[in-house]
């Protein structure tokens, strides 16, 4: 079941009023924090309890936010709020342009484009030489860092290749053992096959020899019947 609507009026019970104050204060501070983080807004929150205790929250600082508010409110006394915001935007734009110019100058100095071969006074020449020495030192440090990074990458690559070489050697040994086992198995199978063929050939020769050594007798042959009677008469006589 949903909670019913709370009537917005002063809470008479002191304990309930203090509990509600703590809960609502924490919720308000949480919302102020979320607003400053999600929307990149400058937020300042000031709360005084009934006992005069101060509670505050600020995304940067309460003083800087209040000073900014005073400047805007004082400048807004003779103009509209839109003009005040436009003035703030112009200030921010000017700051960004200055930062962009500084970054571009730094890039030109690193590339050596800010120094020309034209004649310059002695004082400026000394300053340029000093700047060049500073930039030279910075470039040497940068080159040293690049070389160290390259050495680290090469070392890691060498370690990887060595590890890969060991793995390939293990795979090669395993494959050779498998090939040797297959060859032995095939050789053993061929030997068994040759022995079986030899035995079959010997058995065939033996059976053919027995067939040639003994005469086959047909009991249905009339000659065999006559021969048998003669043998019987001889035995009786």
From TrEMBL:
* Keyword annotations from UniProtKB, A to Z: Coiled coil, DNA-binding, Nucleus, Transcription, Transcription regulation
Biological process annotations from GO: positive regulation of transcription by RNA polymerase II; regulation of transcription by RNA polymerase II
Q: Which residues form a coiled coil?
A: 125-183
- Enumerate the spans annotated as MADS-box domain: 1-61
Q: What are the residue boundaries of the K-box domain, all occurrences included?
A: 86-185
- What GO cellular-component annotations does this UniProt entry give? nucleus
InterPro entries in alphabetical order: MADS-box/MEF2_TF, MEF2-like_N, TF_Kbox, TF_MADSbox, TF_MADSbox_sf
Q: Where in the cell is it found?
A: Nucleus
An MF annotation (GO) of this entry = RNA polymerase II cis-regulatory region sequence-specific DNA binding
Q: What is this protein for, i.e. what is its function?
A: Probable transcription factor.
Q: Please identify the protein, giving its name as recorded.
A: MADS-box transcription factor 3
Q: Sorted alphabetically, which PANTHER family does this protein's record hold?
A: SERUM RESPONSE FACTOR HOMOLOG (PTHR48019)
* Source superkingdom: Eukaryota
Name one matching Pfam family. K-box
Under PROSITE patterns, the record lists: K_BOX (PS51297), MADS_BOX_1 (PS00350), MADS_BOX_2 (PS50066)
């Amino acid at each position: 079941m949903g909670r019913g609507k709370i009537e917005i009026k002063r809470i008479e019970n002191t304990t309930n009023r203090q509990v509600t104050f703590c809960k609502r204060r924490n919720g308000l501070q949480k919302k102020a924090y979320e607003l400053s983080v999600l929307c990149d807004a400058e937020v300042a929150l000031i709360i005084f309890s009934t006992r005069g205790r101060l509670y505050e929250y600020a995304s940067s600082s309460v003083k800087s936010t209040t000073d900014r508010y005073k400047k805007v409110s004082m400048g807004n006394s003779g103009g509209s709020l839109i003009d005040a915001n436009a003035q703030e935007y112009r200030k921010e734009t000017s700051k960004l342009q200055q930062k962009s110019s500084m970054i571009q100058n730094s890039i030109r100095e690193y590339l050596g484009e800010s120094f020309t071969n034209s004649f310059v006074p002695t004082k400026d020449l000394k300053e340029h030489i000093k700047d060049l020495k500073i930039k030279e030192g910075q470039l040497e440090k940068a080159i040293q860092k690049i070389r160290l990074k390259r050495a680290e990458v090469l070392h890691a690559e060498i370690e990887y290749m060595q590890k890969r070489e060991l793995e390939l050697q293990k795979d090669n040994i395993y494959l050779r053992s498998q090939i040797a086992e297959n060859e032995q198995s095939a050789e053993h199978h061929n030997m068994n096959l040759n022995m079986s063929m030899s035995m079959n050939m010997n058995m065939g020769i033996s059976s053919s020899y027995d067939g040639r050594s003994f005469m086959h007798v047909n009991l249905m042959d009339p000659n065999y019947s006559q021969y048998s009677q003669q043998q019987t008469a001889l035995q009786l006589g």
